[in-house]
Amino acid sequence: MENYWQEKKEWLNKLTLEDAKFIFEQAEKSYNYTIETAKGIYERSNGLLTLVSGVLIGLVAYAIGKWKDTPHLDSLLFTAIVGIFYFLIVGLMFVLQGLTPSEYLLPGTNPKVYFDKAFFHKDIADDERILRFYKVEIINYQERIEQNTKKNDYRWNIYVLCLRAIFFSPIVMGIAFAIATIAS
């Protein structure tokens, strides 16, 4: 990232206060979008947790009831047990990863960063200082946006994998039932 800003140093130096304000506002919108996306991923993952938990509870209840009625392993009980393990793996590997707290880079910069010689040097005019503040925030926003987007992309991929695993669960359980039926 440092190299990127070195290449853009000439353009950064040409920024006016109005340019900097415009870029800052756009960066703020982009940053807010990354946070809203993170919230959306969390809410959707929470819905999947409800679904997977419900299926697990249903399969466990069925397996217990089936074992209680006929204490031997038949095709249906075997299929339920495979389903329990399948949904347990889906829940642990995919759903919980989407719900696990992830540190997103927060907006803003600590005030102590601005109380530095680079901003309050005697050769810097007072009206030039705010432009320097904006430049620092623009650079920092770019880093935050990139890091948050990277985390969101990872979490979206986990969410999509979870959806695929749930979509293929009837096939997995069907195969388990076929194998148990053939084996018995």
TrEMBL record:
Keyword Transmembrane: yes
Alphabetically ordered keywords of this record: Membrane, Transmembrane, Transmembrane helix
TM ranges: 47-64, 76-96, 158-183
Protein name, entry field: Uncharacterized protein
Record organism: Mucilaginibacter gossypii
